[in-house]
Amino acid sequence: MSIPSSKYDAIVELALSQRDCAQRAYQRRGLVISGSKEWCSDVALKIASLFDQQQVWISRQPPKGVAAYVGREVLQCLGREVNLLVYDCHGGFDVDAFGAASGLIKGGGLLLLLTPPLDCWPQLADPEAERFFKSRSASSHFIKRFIQVAQASDALLLVAENAPLPYPPEINDLHAVASGFDAPYRTLDQQTTVAAIVDLGRGQSQRPIVLVSDRGRGKSSALGIAAAQLLNQGCKTILVTAPRLTSVEALFRHTRHLLPQATSNRGLLQYGEASLRFIAPDELIKTTPEADLLLVDEAAAIPIPMLEKILSHYPQPVFATTVYGYEGTGRGFALRFNKVLDLQTPGWQQLCMQQPIRWAEFDALEQFAFDALLLNATIASAGELAGLELSACQVKRVCSDNLMANQLLLSEVFGLLVLAHYRTRPNDLRQLLDSSDLQLHVMSYQDRVVAVVLLGIEGGMDEALAKAVYQGRRRLQGHLVPQSLATHAGLVEAPTLRYLRIMRIAVHPLIQRRGLGSALIREVCASVTDDTFDCLGASFGLTPELLRFWQGLGFVPVRLGLTREHSSGNHSLIMLQSVSETGRYFLEKSYLRMQQQLPTLLAGPLAALDKRLTEMLLLDSYHHKPGMSKLDWHDVVSFAYGLRGYEFCMAAIVAFVKTLPQGFSELKPKQSQLLLVKVLENQSWSETVKSVGFSGRAEAITQLRETMRLLLGCYFDPSLLASIKKLLDL
Description:
Layout: H1 5-25, E1 29-34, H2 37-48, E2 55-58, E3 82-88, H3 95-101, E4 105-115, H4 127-130, H5 141-152, E5 156-160, H6 188-201, E6 209-213, H7 219-232, E7 237-241, H8 249-258, E8 263-265, E9 268-271, E10 274-278, H9 281-287, E11 293-296, H10 304-313, E12 318-322, H11 330-344, E13 349-353, H12 364-373, E14 394-398, H13 400-405, H14 407-420, H15 426-434, E15 438-445, E16 448-459, H16 463-470, H17 480-487, E17 498-507, H18 516-527, E18 535-541, H19 544-552, E19 556-564, E20 571-578, H20 581-602, H21 611-618, H22 630-640, H23 646-658, H24 669-680, H25 685-692, H26 697-715, H27 718-727
Parallel strand pairs: 1-4, 1-5, 2-3, 3-4, 6-12, 6-13, 7-10, 7-11, 11-12, 17-18
Antiparallel strand pairs: 8-9, 9-10, 14-15, 15-16, 16-17, 18-20, 19-20
Helix pairs in contact: 5-12, 6-7, 7-8, 9-10, 10-11, 20-23, 22-23, 22-26, 24-25
């Protein structure tokens, strides 16, 4: 659709006025351009033609000839600075990507937000939202609120396809204030920070550093400048770790700029015999290489248990994090990790970079992002909680309508969730407001939020879908407990039960360890009825403290993960509490199955499990009668015919093989050796491949499946085998 010349000229004038205003104040501004996709794209193209090549487009269907990123592909651009960001919401709105991308715009730059007509946008389907939660309300509360915040923002002008244009902004006399600092520094904050890091790296200080800042304050450049100075002054090895390599590209870029003689490849900068090297957090903990200095960037996005392990090996690191980040919140990080630092390295120092570098202070677009995504969510103060007694607290279930009608309630609820979880993101706010598969219960004291619990509705599948999940042919978003119990524990009926999973618990940090969280969970459990759910569930990274907490609330362990989670460094544990009679029967069945399998697993993939946890899990060990149960036979058959992995069926396979006559006369020598090495001696796959002489793990698994099929044919009742295969659709 072509734009009438007069309106085109007026829109261009608006964009130029916004850019002029932004440049004079060295801040950022933007336009919300709403209408049909074609109209919005046409307007954006005409405005973009006024800008240089320092621009980024984010769109699922960009205009012809425009290179664009799709959703979070834009994370590849982190560390860049652009004069124009065009974000097209017509194909879906990735809230996390928008939060990250908004920080790319530098002072004097412009945001173009292309949206469907604002009056119908909340009702439209959104594929980005559908990726994250099972079902959403008919009208998006998140989008409604986003529009309201945009309409109230001083940073944005709203341009609609079939509406009069807004008045252009008044051009004021604000100008950016020159920093007055010699290169490479831009602010006093940056200069002070670099000096402190250099002192630490040279051994002139023994106190770990925690560096916090909002985005755009030059945190990454400060780390890069400090690394360059240290390498130039004789420091031999500097390690840097972060959630991903892309998180530290800006750091490497600044170091490389100051050391032009250095050679660099992906994640490695070599300066003579000295080096700056990236290493992933899990690899760092596993190998603990020597280093003169360790830099931990975006520390809020790394689980606290992993940071504790890092701190135990590297007692004088630099932990840097963003206060309001798209990957993790520095506020929650500070509250949780500062306690660890106080215990392990008292006297640590905190540095805070406050003065913006990418834009001037009081940037209205930054405030818009904070408000729209609730990155600055607040919680009750200490004074407001004075005199709190548990008996004076109230618990009630809160729906999204309640949250929309009470912005203080929404802010305090989300603020607690942010503080409680290291990786709460803007998309979690959208899920909180829009998902119809969530329940929220709030504990309050004198109308201030003191604790919250967020629960997800899972399961309730029909038998055909449950079987497909068990077989690994279907994987559904947001059904963690039933899918794990089906595919990993081998309980084919698990997805047919109805679960209410406790996803997050958050208690105000000033009043923790006073029984509020336990009291809130008990209230929730008491409110759940058997006509709605069969079981309450919880899944978490296993620690002795958490196991005792959930056991104290009446939950029973039913499934232990065989490998450590990358996020927490712990094995995950699923625990259930029954609600209905069906749930009670299933809970007993799944608990006994786990107890039967534990001894074998503890001798195999769980051999390194903490001894305290082993004792706690086996305290009520179920001593079952010898022989194979029906579920054990299902495990053996499902592995043999390729439905499930070896480790998930391992206990049943070991039990089956131990019942066979010695010698395995029906088998070829290589097959007998495979059973001996892998099943009976519990050698690793790599050791098995080497000992038996396979080309790799894939061949070993294929041969073991074939061997198990042969043994089933020789030693298992043919009619029972046929019935199990029929049940499993084999």
